């Protein structure tokens, strides 16, 4: 796997029990220091290592238990940021694991426990409607409100993200037909896939040669997609109405054949109901597009993320110098809290959870250097928002024309590019504003300092900041001042 990924341009290394201790330690060190971003490993990898910034955990094979999956996938996103967990699933994986479990005859009780665990995992994978988080937490006796997924589409599980694609139907009649068909074979070796082919009316050579196209079940499931028909048959196995047994063929290969399950009489006699979530038909009238809710303030979120990334990179650089993991220097939640709060003083930093006096004494100056730059940008964004809010109306339907529309125009035609007669050029206008501002408010900053601030912030934001009188606040942030004079504060 690692070599295949590397060949496709994704540098990867392998980690497994066959490596010597030195190589395993080397792989772990490379991974912790972010010198290797992808590790293809057995499930033991990462145990006892608190690496909080794991963004992806992918299972190439089916886990043997929900407990195992919970622990293994739980290594992602420990820093509180979004992470992705992907499980590659094929129903055939269940047969492989089941065969391995059944070969162990030394401990019948343990074997039964392993089979039960396997059943829970397969049931989890086959479920296409219930929230993944809710399923896992319910397994451990906890409750989870799936509305969290609806309210946070950026962190939704696959089932909650595709709720519009599925509709639950009563499939009792179809399920009963499938069970009766298996009963009719009376122990003859047929696979579950063969039953599905009969159900859907597949005109394949094997079915026709065996005369199974004349069975009552043949073609009754023509309206089912292949995927839904297979899922129905698997559900009957998981619910105990059918069962699969493994036999060894002449090639010494394990083949699973279907038999009637212990609960079959309940269904045949009409004492059980079966429902299944099936995919909606792909009609335009039934198509569903998931509404992606944008963050309340995307720009602020982007600013917070940028600050957090810079803080993390700074701490990682320090950790590399000290030959240690960066999480040992500063708690990851502390960095996240600093990026959100953007404290401008050391005392304010200490109010952020997980920020200790030792952290402030050792790294406070370096942290503040990053925080102050983003705090200045935050003030600009707030000024922008304030200006837009005061000059615009959210309603498109305006009852009265704006006053400016009713006034007589001062001049007709296009304004010259430089500002036109009676309009100072933007650069000159800003210089006048700076000088006037400095004399009026008695600030410690000269007009040259203000000009430097706005050179850093960009000319496109000057008018907005001038309108909202935010120049002093930005100057404070850039100049690393934590207090103002009385005259400055009054202004």
TrEMBL record:
Gene3D superfamilies: HRDC domain, P-loop containing nucleotide triphosphate hydrolases, Winged helix-like DNA-binding domain superfamily/Winged helix DNA-binding domain. Belongs to the helicase family. RecQ subfamily. It catalyses: ATP + H2O = ADP + phosphate + H(+); Couples ATP hydrolysis with the unwinding of duplex DNA by translocating in the 3'-5' direction. GO terms for biological process: DNA replication; double-strand break repair via homologous recombination. Residues 301-381 form the HRDC domain. Pfam families: Helicase_C, HRDC, RecQ_Zn_bind, RQC. Keywords: ATP-binding, DNA damage, DNA repair, DNA-binding, Helicase, Hydrolase, Isomerase, Nucleotide-binding, Nucleus. The keyword DNA repair applies. SUPFAM superfamilies: HRDC-like, P-loop containing nucleoside triphosphate hydrolases. This is ATP-dependent DNA helicase. Its EC number is 5.6.2.4. Residues 1-119 form the Helicase C-terminal domain. It is an enzyme of class 5 (isomerase). Its main location: nucleus. Signal peptide: none annotated. GO terms for cellular component: chromosome; cytoplasm; nucleus. It is found in: Nucleus. GO terms for molecular function: 3'-5' DNA helicase activity; ATP binding; ATP hydrolysis activity; DNA binding; four-way junction helicase activity.
